[in-house]
TrEMBL record, chains A, B:
Its EC number is 2.7.4.16. It is an enzyme of class 2 (transferase). Keywords: ATP-binding, Kinase, Magnesium, Metal-binding, Nucleotide-binding, Thiamine biosynthesis, Transferase. One of its GO terms (molecular function) is thiamine-phosphate kinase activity. It catalyses: thiamine phosphate + ATP = thiamine diphosphate + ADP. Reaction mechanism of ThiL seems to utilize a direct, inline transfer of the gamma-phosphate of ATP to TMP rather than a phosphorylated enzyme intermediate. Mg(2+) 2 binds at D64, D98. Belongs to the thiamine-monophosphate kinase family. It comes from Pseudarthrobacter defluvii. Mg(2+) 3 binds at D48, D98, D242. Mg(2+) 1 binds at D64, D149. This is Thiamine-monophosphate kinase. The keyword rRNA-binding does not apply.
Amino acid sequence: MPEDLRNRVDRQPTVAGLSEADLLARIFPRLRMEGGHDSNLLLGPGDDAAIVAAPDGKTVISIDTQVQDQDFRLLWPNGYRTTGFDVGWKAAAQNLSDINAMGAHATSIVVSLTLPVDTPVRWVEDLADGLRAGIRELGAVHCSVAGGDLGRGREISVTAAVLGNLDGGRPVLRSGARPGDILALAGTVGHAAAGLALLESGVPLDSLTPAEQAFVDLQCRPRPPLEAGPAARAAGATAMLDISDGLLRDGKRLATASHVAVALDPARLTQLADLLGPAAARLGADAAPWVLGGGEDHGLLATFPAGVQLPPGFTAIGSVHALGTDEGPGVLIAGRAADTGGWDHFAH
Amino acid sequence: MPEDLRNRVDRQPTVAGLSEADLLARIFPRLRMEGGHDSNLLLGPGDDAAIVAAPDGKTVISIDTQVQDQDFRLLWPNGYRTTGFDVGWKAAAQNLSDINAMGAHATSIVVSLTLPVDTPVRWVEDLADGLRAGIRELGAVHCSVAGGDLGRGREISVTAAVLGNLDGGRPVLRSGARPGDILALAGTVGHAAAGLALLESGVPLDSLTPAEQAFVDLQCRPRPPLEAGPAARAAGATAMLDISDGLLRDGKRLATASHVAVALDPARLTQLADLLGPAAARLGADAAPWVLGGGEDHGLLATFPAGVQLPPGFTAIGSVHALGTDEGPGVLIAGRAADTGGWDHFAH
C-alpha cells in the first residue's frame, strides 16, 4: 500500500471494504455533467461499453497513464500531499491536451483506476471530483465521462482514454511545418517544471509566494489552453503538437516529422525564463532548463504560414527553416543546434 | 521489479536501457496489420492522437486493465510462466469481448503499458505479438492498433481502450430482456476457471491431459466468440452482456437491468459441468462453481424473443420470467433464488 497514505488509513474507510459495484456507485454520480457536457454521450456507464457521438464519421483517440511515484508523489519533499482531486484533474488535462494538439475538441473520456486496497474511499471520490472539475474548468464543454473500469494493484494507476471530434476538418499533424513558417507557442512553458522543483525542494509550503504557489498548482493541476488547438486549426496551422516533454524534445519531434529545422528566438526564451527568475533564485536553480525541458504545462507548439495572424493565445517563439546540407532535423537556438542536452546553448 | 522475472533479467536486455521512443520503435512495427485490418485507421501511431473511422456517426468505447499479480501471475504455482504473448492476447480478448457484448465489431484498440524497468525487452515485444495475434485470430477483422502510451511502474499493468462500430444499428443493452424470452449462451463457461484452478494447483505442467491443457490455454488466452455478438443483434436479441464474472453475477446484472428473473436450466448446467468433470476430479474440486462463477472465458449471455431461431454459436440455457410479488431481480435455478453464494442450489 502507499506508505504515504498510511497515516490517513486509520481514520478513513478504504476501498478494501467495498465491492467494485459499491465503489462505482460512489463514483459515477460525481461524474455526471450538466450544461451540454453530455451532448455527445449516447449511452453512459452501466453496460459493457459506452456509445459516443462521432458526427463527422471519425473519432480522434488518445490514451495516457499516471502512475504513483512515477508521475506524482503522494507526499512531496516540501510536505505537499497530492490529492485525489489533483490526480483526477491531471488525468483530464493530459488527455484533453492530446486532443487539443490535433486541433480537435474532446467528446468523451473513459477511465481505468487501479487502486491499492488501503486507498481511502474519500481519495477516490476526490479523484472523480477532480476529473469532472478538470473537464469543466478547462472548458471541454462537449466532453463527459462515458465509463470506466476499477481494479486492484500495489500502486495507484490512472489511465484515461479520450475521444475527440474534428467537426469535419482535417487534423493538424506534426509533419506539416514548412520553411518560412512562424513557430508559435500557446500556454505557459516551464511553470509546471518550476512547481515540480519547489515540490521536490525543502522550501516549506507555507513560505511560498503567490507566484510560487501558482507554479506548484500548475504542476498538480495543469491548465492546457483548450481553445488554442481548434483555433490554430481554423487559422491554418501547418503543424502542431502538445508540449509534454519540453520545447527542445517536442520541437525536435515536430522538426523530425516535418523534416525541417525549427529555430527558437533567444529573446523570447529569455522573456519566458524571466517569469521564472524569482523561483529559480529562491532555489539556487537555473530557469533555462525549466523553459527548454519543462513539459507538464501542456502548452502547444504550432507552426503557421508567414503572414497569418496568430490566433488568440499564440505568440511567436521562432521560425521554421529548410535543412542545410548535412543538417538533420532539430532545434536551433541562436543558430546553433540545441539537442536535449544542450542547455549550454541557451544563455539568458 | 517482478521477482518472477529476475532469473531472466540476467540474460536478457531490459527496458531500462531503452528510451520510450526506442521501445515504441520496437513495438509499433509488430502491431501493423494487413488484410483490411487497418481499414478503419485514418491516422495511426506517431502523432498526439490517432484517428479512427466511425462510419455511422457514433462509436462504441470500453476500457479494461490487467495488473500483474491481480489478473495474472508471472509465475504460477504449477510452474507455468505467463508470457508477454498471453498478456497481450488477453488485453485484446477482454476488450474485444466488451464490444462484442454490445452487438458491435471492434474498429481500433489503443494500449497503455506500465512496465517495471527490469522487464525484458523480449517480453514486451512478445506482448505486442500477442495483442496482434489476439485481434487477428479471434477474427476482429476490422480492428487495428491505433496507438499507445508507455511508462514506468513497480508492477506490469496493461490498459487497453477499444472502439467499436454498430453499422448503423442499435446496441444490445442489458436492460431489454422481457418475460418469456429465451436465455442463451455463446462460447464456453467455466473452462477458464478450470484452467485457473490447474494453474493454481500443484499439478505439474507436463502431466496435463490435452483437455486440461486446453483449459489452461483458455485462461491465459481467452477466446470470446466474436461472431456471436453482431449475430445476436441481427437476430433480435433483447438483452446481452459479456460473462466476465460468471453466470450468476452476470445473470443477476442482466436481470436487475431488465427488472426480471432469469432461470437457468439445471440440466444444461449439468451438461456444462460434465465437460469439466475430469479436471475437477483430478483436483478434488467441484465443477459447479466453475460453471456458475467462472467468467474469464468471456462468453455471451443473451436473451431472445421466444420463437426466434438462435443464431449460430448460441444455445438455450434458460428463460426469462416476470418478477413475482416481493421478488427482486435475480437468477433462479430449479425455482430457487441463486445468489452469488448459492452454490448449494446447484446439485449436479
